Amino acid sequence: MEDLGIHFIGRVRVSSEVWHRGATPVPLTETVVRLFAMTEPSPGPAPAPEPYLHGMRPVLPTVNLVWRADLPADEEDLRRMERTGVLSELLALAPPRPHELLELPLYAARDWLSGKVTDSSDLEGVEEPGRQRTLERGWVAIRWDGETAEVIGAFKIRPGDTLFLPAAYGGLDEFAWDPDSEVPVEDVAELGPDPWFLRLHPGSPLWAELPAKGKYPEEAEAGELSGPKETAESLIQRLLPLEGITQAEREEKISLNRRMIKDFLVKIGTSLKEDEIDDRWVKAFLRDLAAFLPEEHRWRRALEVFARHPRSLYWYVPQGYPGLILRRRGELLSIGGEEPVSLEEHSIKVEEKAKDFAARLGLDRRLTRALSSAARRHDLGKLDERFQVWLVLSAPPEGISEPPLAKSGTRLTGQALGQARERAGYPKGLRHEHQGAAALLEAGAAALEAYLVGTHHGYGRPLPQPSPDLSGYQVEEELPWLGPGRWRIAGDHGLDRLESGWLGLTTHLHREYGYWGLAFLEALLRLADQAAS
Amino acid sequence: MRLEALAVELSALRHWDFPLAALTAYGALRILEEEQGKEATLCFVEKPWGPVPVLCGLDRDSLLEALADHLSSLDRQGLKIHPDASRIKDLGGEYFRFLGEAVSQGDRHRAAFLQAYLAPNRRDMNRPIPTPFDTTKGRQAFFKTLDEAHQLAGQLGFPAGLRRVLFEEGVLIYPGEVIPSAPQLGWHGSQYREWADRARNPSEEKECQRVRVHPVAVLLAWEALPLYPMALGAGLEPRPIGFLAPQERGASPSLVLPLPRRPVGAGGLRALIAAGPVAIAAGRGWPRDVELWVSPMRGSKGAKGAYPTFMGAKPWDARTVSGA
Fold this sequence. Notes:
A: alpha+beta, 4 domains, three-stranded antiparallel β-sheet, B: alpha+beta, 9 helices, 15 strands, disordered C terminus
């Protein structure tokens, strides 16, 4: 067999044109790196990364398209979901995954949505063609900015938008972009690596795996169940345990269960509340369904991942959504986490991870000390009492850890979390990491430690947003595991102002460690935090 | 000793001479910190008549000496990138070669100026887009102006020119002063040449009857250009950093000037320049101890009409500043 790997390519000296298709290489200079190092705010204009990755060549403005089977194709339905906030909630719970994005020239997406079918290519750098045909339609798309979903017409699409589309629109064939195709597009969100949400709804291919109505004689029995809660209790009794029965009994039971689960899922969309769902039957259902699917079925892996998840699943039933959304982790890692965790436990865990990284990477003692200290104190700002109340209000009912908390293990969605924050009095837009960094600077901590704490969520490089809290709120705390002394956490962190020294500190650290060096240290703390969360 | 303990007020750089006066202060800071390796910072203090720049980190004599040293030994060829270049567009065809050479030779200075002058044009690789600071057109030539400014400043004497610009008369040469042909650049509102606004055809005016920009101010402001590099934005559109994009198609961008009330180094000033337009355009919160001033451009590079000129700057409405 011929070796066509990288060693072969090195030996045969393939022309560089093969790699960049004639594009002119653009050097990544200090001027540009300096601009890339500014992430909040981004410079105006923010530099595009493409020329430094692909060289300089004609590049058309593009958008990313995502097809979803649980989005209705009717514009009125979509607008209703937008008005009620369901659309934003749904997409926050099941955001776009990298493998389901299709990058397309902006003109092609606009033309297709507005009914002009243009012959275009989804290959990078291919020039705009001229041939067009016109159809009678004016479809809408859903623009998703990471927080809010907005239903927009074709003319409102902007370069770089991520657009969700109802799968029923079509537009893809088996292999690629096909504007003529009217076949519903397969929704593949759950089929990528490491699925962490799973949607069960009538548009899902999984739904089709459930038996059609009337196929099973037990249907009457399932139909007699009065309400979703009773159905859930009955399901739990029937689904568990599946062990200790004969194979024939097992198969019979599984088929009955599937029928009832389908009924049940239909009911979920109308009347069940999230706290009436039980983790046991959901996992049993997933296990059953996975066992029922053929070995090579594309959905099998995702089902097994969820069925075998060692911790409780998070489940959500957005109002009016005809199904259920399961997640393996909460929505917001910074306050959610898998379960309620005390600040001390979390901080020590992050410090251990950071120390481990530092040891494996051979960092010197000075850097290790700064990184470890930053790791232990990275959530210092969460000592704001209002943040603590927010965590408690958003924690699940089964109980919380020893306060102060770092994570609430919340299962609330964006809107409900926002309401909990308002009830707690924690101002919208206030960043706990900036409060923590300000407290560290006031206490005389090393510049690197304060910087790493202040940027561990990616904000504040180099100008944090001014604090929205001008109430004069502050609290002092003394916790032995955070080190000696009292920590003053203020609502107005002041890091946006020059007098805080934050801007000077950032530029000083860039000089001392270099842009890459500082980003590397930031990454270590962020990864340690993620690994421990 | 703290940097602020040594503070030199650049009393002749007045806000009514913005943007040129502010750019002159920025350029002085960049020279001191990045070309001369001094620990210098810049801030603007409020006086009854408006903001005045203050350079911290060295005394007045050291400041003048450092700047005069730099200007007198200025590597003009380095600033021009290529000895034969008289206009920015002369660099166009070989932009990537020049940039590649500068990077491979570790010539940060040359790379920084090249990226301040122009950005590649994805539509026509041989016609890069020049910085809005290039206000020349017709028979004027950007690098020729630099050469002339340097030559004239040398004739007048760099120390004397620096004293005049920074501490005495300011950035302008006034009518009646007998000084050989001064450089013409639209970095000051007084240079706006529009026949309808003037008593006589400007081309028929004698040199000494006109308000001109001082060559030392031109050279110092020139040194500020790397703080405003050209960048490739979304869709690879070449755009200048530190400028407000025009509201209307075909209109000119406006120059944004941050005035920090507390001392910042060149790195901090760069960040404020890059962030300023975002604060204005997107209504983002902005530090209350940094004022933003905006200088609109009139005229255009087109064959007809007035020469492009940055007009007097005005403070951005502070009522929109979060936390102010």
